[in-house]
Amino acid sequence: MSHIVRRIGPSPQARGCQTGQNCPDIFELSDGNFAVIGTESTARLDSQLPPDAGRADYENIVVISRETLIRAKADIPDV
Questions:
Q1: pLDDT over 90 for what percent of the chain?
Q2: What are phi and psi of 48, to 5 degrees?
Q3: What 3-state class would DSSP assign to 69?
Q4: FRET partner for 70 with CA separation of 20 to 30 A, picked from 9, 24, 36, 49?
């Protein structure tokens, strides 16, 4: 079972989240995968996926802010 190794990018508080609302986050896991905290948007976006995209029943579409991903960019490993 994997576990969280580190946060990718600055904390939500460093990005201005003080209320616990709209505080997306990205974490690197011990197995090399990433976990994302974001807004669950499967119902809204599922029908808009391109034809070559697939989503299993146990997978969800999660939205994070552009700022969250851009500020995390420096911490994302190249390999």
A1: 67
A2: -95, 0
A3: helix
A4: 49
